[in-house]
Design a protein that fits this description.
Blueprint lengths: L1 H44 L2 H30 L13 E9 L11 E7 L6 E4 L4 H16 L6 E6 L12 H5 L11 H22 L6 H8 L6 E9 L5 H13 L5 E7 L12 H5 L3 E6 L2 E4 L5 E5 L8 H9 L8 H4 L14 E8 L2 E7 L9 E4 L6 H15 L5 E7 L22 E6 L3 H22 L6 H7 L7 E7 L10 H16 L5 E7 L3 H9 L9 E4 L4 H7 L15 E5 L9 E5 L4 H14 L9 E4 L6 H7 L13 E8 L6 E6 L7 E4 L16 H17 L5 E6 L3 H6 L2 H9 L4 E5 L4 H14 L7 E6 L20 H11 L5 E7 L2 H12 L5 E4 L4 H8 L12 E5 L7 E5 L8 H9 L2
Parallel strand pairs: 3-6, 3-7, 4-5, 5-6, 12-16, 12-17, 13-14, 13-15, 14-20, 15-16, 23-27, 23-28, 24-25, 24-26, 26-27
Antiparallel strand pairs: 1-2, 1-9, 7-8, 10-11, 10-19, 17-18, 18-19, 21-22, 21-30, 28-29, 29-30
Helix pairs in contact: 1-2, 5-7, 12-14, 21-26, 22-23, 23-24
The structure holds adenosine-5'-triphosphate.
């Protein structure tokens, strides 16, 4: 602002000074001519002395005036720019002008800096044959336009039919954003197209002015928003390449453009002839200030009588810096809370609609309405390239809604498929409570299985609602109006990077797509609204359009800056406007399925993490921070700890009935409820569990032995069984054949000690005595009675038994360890004996089980096994690519298909005391 005020004052001063100087110059010239004549006369008359004085007087006078003028323009020669987005190069400096005089001492002539009005003010027409001077002047003007305007503010377009490539040095800008420097138009057709595009831009901005007489700069300053777009069109060798239509277009752009941010520099080469019937060059010149480059020098139309010496060309190597600045350009921030309307916290009802305020367009708030019966806009599609403000936009949308509606009016399911922490603070881990009370489930680092399960949960909810509503109208509004006591919150489902759901061509993808389609088409009636966000929609559009266009159910399109291809994907085939956005946080709001006519530019308000946390704290306070309503958080990258396993045990009470089935807890479901998953150990034959596959990746994954999933699953199983039995005489036999490093990393010693405090009898075997123990199982099973207290053999690393089928005759053995294990497998469950064992290799497990025991194990938990092994285990159609902490659990009796679980982590060193205390309190 300051810079502009100074610029205006300085401009005025300059104009005044130049006017004075013109008068002076004219008077001087007349006087000079008169005096010259007199001089000659006098000289001839021999009065040489007097003539000398006269010349001296003139030199002194002009020097005095020059000093005064230079003083007047000093401010102007150093324009003030604060580097903000509102800066615009209103004037560009061309060089120094010297007053044409016939004085013998030209150095004594006055000189002034020459500034040309440009953006927001006018156009320039530069005539002269193509030369270094012409090229230099053009480059200098473009360079200043870019340096003196806010970064990324001005787009340069060019018409270059003779391929002069005068602007080649600015090409780094095109790498930042293809619209910052578009390829030059060279053919007549391209020139016409470019001018049509510019005219459309001009018209769109004129519309935005709504009849106000103003310039774009004034409008921006008034609104505090970088609305509209500044563009500089550079034409070389006019009229070459210009058809009559293009010339008329150019004239229109020159006439109407400057006030709305489009200025033009036209180089006219007198060597080129115009197409007959086209407006003459003079007509162009009437819309511009003129500069003439001739052999006699450079003259400007606005300083007649002065000759200009152009400034040296600027250092064009700095264009890379300009490009870098443009890359980092950011919209002015609009505070999230300032942007929100003045409504009471958590006081709105969602019977008719949901309303959120996400930013501003000029001074007007940008409000989105979902679910309204008249507008029929129910779902939102969001896109934005990396780092363009998508996370912020989603957080703004979520929190704007959360402020208005209480959780009884609005519930949310939030899913994030990218590795990120955006949603994490919304989960229930925070203290004091600052989670999002509206969130039912939050999926961080979600995987496809989880995503698909959220969608099927929502489909189930939708069906539940459909049944409820029967007889009360066919949509949520009617249902709620029919009887105000009907409580039915609307549900908002936000899925960031949702395309990940369709990454593979498999069952999960198919299921997810089918559910998503149902929700998108029918969910609206039941108050379920989808917000799907993505960086890269273009890859999946074809897939989604094949399904009869899911996107046709998403009237609201929100596009942050992205490539032209993405812009087409999120908006419309003909709509590349998102590629021309300039800032992070600048948004194209389109409420009409991406139709190009409905584009509206806005700036998303900016929500700071701390501000949102405080807001959520207030929301938690207001809604009573009902702990039973904490969101369930599923973090795909993390396995639940044993301490959490223990918390989940609170649901599994000790049963006084000793014959009741006990459940060995192994992990949690990959779904909205994130529930404990157990394997029931009943007295039926086959109730054993085999864990198979590597428990941790071999190397380089960042997952260490301390996270060994096989150990974690079996520790949780043992701990949960102990919790269910306590002191009823049950036994847990730990067979620890783990390599020492794994055993130590997973705190097996501490774990066994803790288990011992639970009331069950714990015994432990290792490599040294495992053979004898396994052999003894044969007799043990034979001697047991059905009423005996259960015994659970929990074997960690059974494939490390070296002499599994070895009959040790030397010691008089009559059975092998294999016989003992087979006896347990075959006959154990009816007499309360169960095996839970881990083999890291499927081959070894098959060898161990052999024909004798095949089919005697109902439960298989596969960890890191190959796809072939997974198909051997679960059937030829199984797709299993374990990535992260996941296991595929199949209870062959209970279900026809395996399901994905997240196995618990082994006992962590940091949790030893916590888990010990928990077990002591059982
Ligand atoms: N509306 C906005 N106003 C001001 N600054 C913003 C706005 N939106 C984003 N920014 C700036 O851009 C940065 C990136 O924003 P954000 O994390 O939302 O981007 P993103 O598109 O989600 O990025 P990514 O996909 O890479 O995680 C923010 O840290 C902030 O500095």
């Amino acid at each position: 602002m300051l810079g502009r005020a100074r610029t205006i004052r300085a401009t005025q001063a300059l104009v005044d000074a130049v006017a004075i100087l013109h008068q002076v110059a004219d008077r001087d010239r007349q006087a000079l001519e008169q005096r010259r004549a007199d001089d000659l006369k006098q000289l001839r008359a021999g009065f040489a002395e007097e003539a000398g004085d006269l010349y001296e007087d003139h030199a002194a006078e002009t020097s005095r005036r020059r000093t005064a003028l230079n003083d007047a323009v000093t401010t102007f020669s150093t324009p003030q720019h604060d580097g903000g987005p509102f800066d615009v190069a209103e004037y560009v400096r061309l060089g120094q002008a010297t007053l044409d005089t016939d004085l013998p001492d030209r150095a004594a002539s006055p000189t002034i800096p020459v500034w040309a009005p440009l953006l927001d003010h006018g156009n320039l027409v530069l005539t002269g044959s193509w030369s270094d001077t012409v090229a230099g002047l053009i480059r200098s003007m473009v360079h200043q336009t870019l340096t003196d305007s806010g970064p990324g503010q001005v787009r340069i377009r060019s018409v270059d039919p003779s391929v002069r490539s005068a602007l080649a040095a600015f090409s780094p800008l095109a790498d930042v954003r293809d619209d910052l420097l578009t390829p030059p138009a060279t053919s007549e057709h391209e020139v016409e197209e470019m001018l049509q595009g510019l005219l459309a831009d001009v018209r769109a901005t004129v519309d935005m002015f709504q009849g106000r007489r103003s310039t774009l700069g004034q409008l921006r300053r008034e609104t505090g928003q970088p609305i509209g777009t500044y563009q500089l069109l550079v034409v070389t060798d006019f009229p070459a390449g210009f058809s009559r239509r293009a010339t008329e277009g150019l004239l229109n752009v020159m006439r109407a453009g400057p006030a709305v941010g489009v200025s033009t520099i036209v180089h006219v080469d007198p060597a080129f002839r115009s197409t007959p019937g086209t407006p003459a060059v003079d007509t162009l010149a009437s819309q511009a200030e003129t500069i003439a480059v001739t052999d006699q020098g450079v003259r400007t139309g606005w300083l007649p009588g002065w000759t200009m010496t152009p400034d040296p060309e600027p250092d064009l190597t700095t264009t890379a810096d300009l490009a870098e600045k443009a890359r980092g350009a950011q919209a002015p921030q609009i505070d999230f809370l300032d942007c929100q309307p003045n409504v009471d916290l958590l006081s709105d009802v969602s019977t008719h609609r949901l309303t959120a305020t996400i930013g501003r367009a000029g001074q007007r708030p940008v409000t989105l309405t979902l679910g309204d019966e008249i507008d029929q806009r129910h779902n939102i599609l969001v896109s934005g390239a990396v780092g363009q403000g998508k996370s912020n936009l989603l957080m703004v949308l979520i929190h704007s809604l959360a402020m208005r509606y209480p959780p009884s009016e609005l519930e949310m399911h939030l899913l994030d498929f990218k590795e990120g922490v955006t949603l994490e603070p919304l989960g229930a881990r925070s203290s004091p409570p600052s989670w999002l009370p509206h969130a039912v489930s939050i999926g961080l680092n979600s995987d496809r299985t989880y995503g698909a399960s959220v969608l099927s949960h929502l489909v189930a909810e939708f069906e539940r609602r459909a049944t409820l509503m029967r007889g009360h109208g066919d949509n949520i509004t009617k249902y709620r109006l029919a009887d105000p006591s009907h409580r039915m919150p609307r549900i908002l489902v936000v899925i960031d990077e949702f395309q990940v759901l369709f990454d593979a061509d498999d069952d999960t993808s198919e299921r997810a797509l089918a559910d998503l389609e149902r929700l998108a088409r029918k969910g609206r009636a039941y108050g379920i609204h989808l917000v799907l966000a993505s960086q890269t929609l273009s890859g999946i559009t074809s897939m989604l359009t094949k399904q009869d266009g899911i996107f046709a159910q998403f009237p609201i399109r929100l596009a942050l800056k992205n490539s032209a291809a993405e812009s087409r994907a999120v908006l419309d085939q003909n709509n590349t406007a998102a590629a021309r956005l300039r800032y992070r946080g600048e948004l194209l709001v389109n409420l009409d399925f991406g139709d190009v006519e409905s584009n509206r530019r806005a700036t998303v308000c900016w929500a700071q993490d701390r501000q949102l946390a405080q807001l959520r704290q207030r929301l938690c306070d207001h809604s009573g921070a009902d702990h039973s309503r904490r969101p369930t958080t599923f973090d795909g990258a993390h396995a639940p700890s044993l301490a959490e396993a223990h918390q989940k045990l609170s649901g599994i009470r000790r049963s006084p009935d000793s014959t009741a089935a006990r459940s060995a807890l192994l992990g949690t479901t990959v779904d909205v409820r994130s529930e404990p998953v157990g394997f029931a150990l009943t007295a039926d034959n086959g109730r054993h569990l085999a864990v198979v596959g590597a428990g941790a990746p071999r190397s380089g994954s960042g997952i260490s032995e301390a996270d060994n999933q096989a150990v974690g699953a079996l520790q949780a199983a043992a701990l949960s069984l102990a919790a269910q039995h306590g002191g009823d005489g049950a036994q847990i036999v730990i067979v620890d054949l783990l390599p020492e490093t794994t055993s130590t990393a997973c705190n097996m010693n501490e774990f066994t000690n803790i288990l011992g405090t639970s009331g069950v009898t714990v015994t432990r075997y290792d490599n040294k005595n495992v053979d004898d123990y396994l052999i003894s199982l044969n007799d043990m099973i034979e001697s047991r009675q059905p009423d005996d207290a259960p015994v659970y053999v929990v074997a960690f690393g059974l494939d490390r038994v070296r002499k599994f089928r070895h009959l040790d005759m030397a010691r008089g053995a009559t059975v092998t360890p294999a016989d003992g294990v087979h006896a347990l497998l075959r006959d154990g469950p009816p007499v309360g004996a169960h095996l839970l064992a881990w083999w890291s290799s499927l081959r070894v497990m098959n060898e161990h089980l052999g024909l004798e025991a095949s089919g005697t194990v109902d439960g298989i938990l596969a960890l890191r096994v190959t796809s072939n092994d997974a198909q051997d285990l679960f059937g030829p159609f199984t797709v299993w690519k374990p990535d992260g902490p996941r296991g595929l659990l199949h209870d062959r009796v209970e279900s026809s298909e395996p399901s994905v679980i997240v196995p618990f982590r082994p006992l962590m060193t940091a949790q030893i005391d916590t888990v010990r205390q928990m077990v002591e309190q059982l």
